[in-house]
Write a structure and sequence with these properties.
The chain has about 300 residues and is α/β, with parallel strands linked by helices. The chain has two domains: about 220 residues, P-loop containing nucleotide triphosphate hydrolases (Rossmann fold); about 60 residues, Alpha-Beta Plaits (2-Layer Sandwich), CATH 3.30.70. Helix content is about 35%, strand content about 30%. It binds adenosine-5'-triphosphate (ATP) and magnesium ion.
Length: about 300
Amino acid sequence: MRAAIEVEHLTKRFGSVTAIDDLSFTVREGAVTGFLGPNGAGKTTTLRIILGLASPTSGTVRVQGVPYAQLAEPARVVGASLERAGFHPGRSGRNHLRALCAMARLPMSRVDEVLELVDLAGPAADRRVGGYSLGMRQRLHLAAALLGDPAILVLDEPANGLDPQGIRWLRDTLRGLAREGRTVLVSSHVLAEVAQTADDVVVIARGRLVDQGPVDRVGSPEPEAVIVRAADDGLARLAAAVESAGGGVERHEGWLRVTGVAAATVGEAALAQGVALHALYEQRASLEEVFLRLTEGEGAAA
Ligand SMILES: Nc1ncnc2c1ncn2[C@@H]1O[C@H](COP(=O)(O)OP(=O)(O)OP(=O)(O)O)[C@@H](O)[C@H]1O
Ligand SMILES: [Mg+2]
């Protein structure tokens, strides 16, 4: 695995506020990495430092092996969209992109190409940005990030303000960019939003790393319990059998909540007892719960 971005022991203080606290993580080349944390966790600050827009108090960041400032053609290596980047409201989307193209000395032909890529081609591109919806602005941000045809995309909360169709579109677009071999680092404060898009996730809270790894591991918790339904006479026998197999049983009217043993164990106990099951399923925490637990745990430790 090659790292597109390496963050090592990054710390950033604003006066007495420690926004980033000894944060280390890597972003895999050619993958979509979700950068997750609740409000104020330090996501934007970290992205700004990666992009050379802010300097760290200590620690290092490398993009393709070198600090951002040492990239020969940064616009062609990293495309970014940050939350506070503004648009001139009187300019059209197309003119905004033209201005950026000129500044970065990129060919003007890219303007139409990226408008097409983000579904803003047509009359919308020539309307004043001041009249754009939040979703259109997000598309324009992404278009701007794509201008240099960069190998790496750094996107700060690009899903903010998008409706469900917009989020689906963003997801498909980001997956498509990764399929082309690009690296995508995308921040969000909503785990569920990123879970279906990302290959890897980096979770931070209060400026510290909470967890990082493949989204399947971080975002899909182990089952917490097995729920089983059956007629009442069978349930009593099943409960006893599960308990003697080492499971914990919570008894309810018409159903049991079993912990400490696998669903298969419960199913086999039912078969051995001749109990007809009406339902058998695993109970898992929702992604939202996992995320809240991860980030609250860190908060309590801090
Ligand atoms: N320029 C600044 N001056 C002082 N404090 C700052 C500055 N920028 C960020 N902070 C503080 O650093 C911490 C991290 O902020 P940051 O914007 O990076 O969080 P975030 O994860 O992007 O949050 P959000 O989800 O709300 O965008 C916050 O406590 C914030 O108040
Ligand atoms: Mg932010």
